[in-house]
Amino acid sequence: xxxxxxxxxxxxxxxxxxxxxxxxxxxxxxxxxxxxxxxxxxxxxxxxxxxxxxxxxxxxxxxxxxxxxxxxxxxxxxxxxxxxxxxxxxxxxxxxxxxxxxxxxxxxxxxxxxxxxxxxxxxxxx
Length: 126
Prior knowledge:
This protein is of the alpha+beta class and 126 residues long. Helix content is 54%, strand content 19%. It has a five-stranded antiparallel beta sheet with strand order 4-1-3-2-5. The longest helix has 44 residues, at 2-45. The protein is elongated and about 65 Å long. The N and C termini lie far apart (91 Å). The relative contact order is 0.16.
């Protein structure tokens, strides 16, 4: 009878330990899945030298300011989105994406990947 009392006291503690272990497994699985998905996104969106890139500049910049930043990075403006902060451009140097970041771009991805995500009006640059 004395042993049954202790066994009854330990059962809730064992259940709590098992629940904690399952929760750690779930958190690890979710974190690992997020890491893999983010890695796949970055690989797919990585700018390829010599191909057009989509760049997102700070909101509030005018189309002329964005065009100047693209020119400063050594690129040629191809298209401007409905929002002038989002542009498609082409640069000839291998480090063009890095130059866009130095010119003020917040985000630079391969344009073919970006077109899959973008809806709305685009207009060609003149």
